[in-house]
Amino acid sequence: MSQPYVPQEFNKEDEELKCHPSQSGSTATPTLFENANAAKAFSTAFFEDQLHQEDDLFDEINQQLNQVLINDTQRPSLVSAFQADMSSYLSHEKLTKNSRKMQLEYQNANLKEKEYVFNTFVRADIENISLDKYKHFLLEKILEVGPPSHKNIILDRIFQSINKLIKDLYACKVMQKGLEVMISHPNDSPQQLEKYLNFIHSDTPQMKKIYVDKIANQIIQKSLEVLEGNHLYKLLQVVSKYVLNNNNEKFELSTDQYGCLIVNKIIDIYPKLFDVQTKTLCNEIITRAIENSSGLTRRQYANYIIQSILEKGQEVHKRLLMDQYLIKDFIPMSMDKYGSNVAEKAIVYGGSQWRQRLWEEVTVSESSFKRLVNDQFANYPIQRLFEYLDQPLRQEYLALLNKFSDNNQLNNHGQIVQKFAQANYNVKRYTQKILQTEKNKQIKNSQKNQNQKSQTKSQNITNNPQKQQQSDNGLKQMQQEQFQVMMMQQMMYYQQQQQLLLQKQMPQLYYQDQNYLHYGAMNQEQQMMMFRWQQQQQQQQYIFNQNMNQKNGQ
């Protein structure tokens, strides 16, 4: 045991003894230093008290940890992930990495850990987290995999500030995730879902601003996508008032930059609807768009509605749109800045019968075709039309262009159309030529392989050169005319000749009870023996017939 530290003034024993009352003649009470046993007892009791105090402190800390979070299952990486620096001066890669780590650690945490991080890092700052570019993903993860109590707290806090958060890009994403969760688990958040439905079904000036807002209208699109039944029907009733319908407010969604996205979403969800009432209302909205297609195709944003019908709409809607409106309006529509985009989609997504009618409409006179070719907007759908026409119509198309070119009736746009058509025509001809060449090569290779197989089979028949030549010719003819038929009838023929074969040619395969062995009950070796015998019989019969025919001919 190491010696205790001794001050410098007591470095001598005799001077140290003079300080004690018994040695210095003092009348003071004797200290513990005079009794060696008492000193030892004092030191032991002192250190035991210190140890007990440290044990009590250690137990108290452990008890606090158990109450707050964690015992042996504590993962320091969870806390460190939520304590990561998310300051704005960090790089995008660093902030993304920290955000993903937070999501991963939370997803893999147990219930106590989720309680701890939610109460410590999330609960008091939900609004600011939802507005953050990187942290809002954490709220989405909690809504996805967190306990229902935490989900409801987040949904309540967001709904309290919905007028502010619904127009923010990141908070709106959190709201969309919350809507998905509420719809998929309605029993977990019934009150929150009811509040949201009352909000989304309201017909107020505030909701009209949401319909045409760049960010907020995304929550309307998400609602149309996830709501079902009566909830969806009520929302469509409100939206239908402002889609190509007379209303006192003169508020129109189809011509708005962001309102047209809501109409496009209605077109997308139409095939997925099963409720008759909702499907009928949705069909009315789409039909109104088709009836007003002449005006919508010439509007900057509304033309996307007609494009969506052509691209994603049902066949009945496409047929109505093409037959009644677009084909008649194709020439003036193609010469419009925005209508030319719709004309291209009509060519791409229209069937062959509609392309035929479009070609007839375009070439009703040479002057109309020349006007479209030379137009700054119409030349684009005319080029697209050439790509989808059949070969005879392409030749007519090129003939007209060459005629205009010879008469110097093509401007810069028309010359571009002519070059495009000629290049596309040559490329397709070259492609067809390559495909035909490859097809011919495959046919020649297959014929060559068949000839080689027929030669190897004929060599096994006989070694006589005369018979060899006859068998080669016979096998070639048989492969061309009778091979497929023979293979189809082979199994039936085996079963018919089975009993005769076993009795006469192969008695070792015949049972003593005179019942022939079924072909399916034979093993592989027995089946091969039967196959070789049958093949030899057919070849010999064929050669015999050939010889008889030659003799009859002579």
TrEMBL record:
Pumilio repeats: 120-156, 284-323, 325-360, 361-399
Segments for region (Disordered): 1-29, 438-476
InterPro entries: PUM-HD, Pumilio_RNA-bd_rpt
Molecular function terms from GO: mRNA binding
Bias-annotated ranges (Polar residues): 461-476
Gene Ontology cellular component annotations, sorted alphabetically: cytoplasm
Stretches with biased composition (Low complexity): 443-460
Sorted UniProt keywords: Repeat
PUM-HD domain mapped to chain residues: 53-425
GO biological process, one term: post-transcriptional regulation of gene expression
Record's keyword annotation contains Thylakoid: no
The protein's name in its UniProt record: PUM-HD domain-containing protein
Source organism: Paramecium octaurelia
